[in-house]
């Protein structure tokens, strides 16, 4: 994997040691995962502060989105330190959200059940799980090639469950995997 490209703009007044430390932290962050593609670090006079604060902006191109932070301090070196801290925090948040995502395609939902009834005009219905629990589902939970309008009582499905306001609800309703056991 090639080393990340970092572009530095208008940072002449930052001490070499401060810039080297910031660069080392940003490169270490990039090496942890391959989602960070490029970085631009730039210094500016802050337009938000009357006291002449200096501002550092860091823009990172990450897979799927751009990450932007800005921090201002009277000295550009201090603003650089704060901005790197904030950027590291934002990247960790972005990565933890990616890890916590719902199951990816190809993964089967952990529960099986059958359609109990569908209230088409209201846009929801109920499922009986293989464990015998009645579960609410909304039309927006139906995916994976199923169409809400064509669901029929007794139809086998796979589903994900989570607690709802009035009991369990299905967050994903997909066709049951081929060969799924019958209740």
Task: List the keywords.
183 residues, alpha+beta, Double Stranded RNA Binding Domain, OB fold (Dihydrolipoamide Acetyltransferase, E2P), five-stranded mixed β-barrel, four-stranded mixed β-sheet, 2 helices, 9 strands
Would you give an account of this structure?
The structure is a single chain. Helix content is 22%, strand content 39%. By secondary structure, the protein is α+β, with helices and mostly antiparallel strands. It has a 5-stranded mixed β-barrel. Strands 1-2-3-4 form a 4-stranded mixed β-sheet, with helices on one face. A hairpin with a 2-residue loop joins strand 8 and strand 9. Helix 1 (16-32) packs parallel to helix 2 (76-99). The longest helix is centred in the middle third of the chain and has 24 residues, at 76-99. It is elongated.
Return the average pLDDT rounded to an integer: 85
Q: Treating each run of at least 4 consecutive H or I residues as one helix, how many helices?
A: 2
What count of domains describes the coordinates? Answer: 2
User: Which radius of gyration do the C-alpha atoms yield?
Assistant: 25 Å
Element-by-element helix/strand order: EHEEEHEEEEE
Number of strands: 9
CATH fold type of the largest domain? Double Stranded RNA Binding Domain
CATH class of the largest domain equals Alpha Beta
Amino- and carboxy-terminal Cα gap? 49 Å
**CATH homologous superfamily classification of the largest domain:** Ribosome hibernation promotion factor-like
Query: What general form does the structure show?
Result: elongated
Strand portion: 35-45%
**CATH architecture level-2 label of the largest domain:** 2-Layer Sandwich
Strand order of the largest sheet: 5-6-7-9-8
What structural class results from the helix and strand content? alpha+beta
Largest sheet: 5 strands, mixed, barrel
Low-confidence stretches: none
Question: Multimeric state of these chains?
Answer: single chain
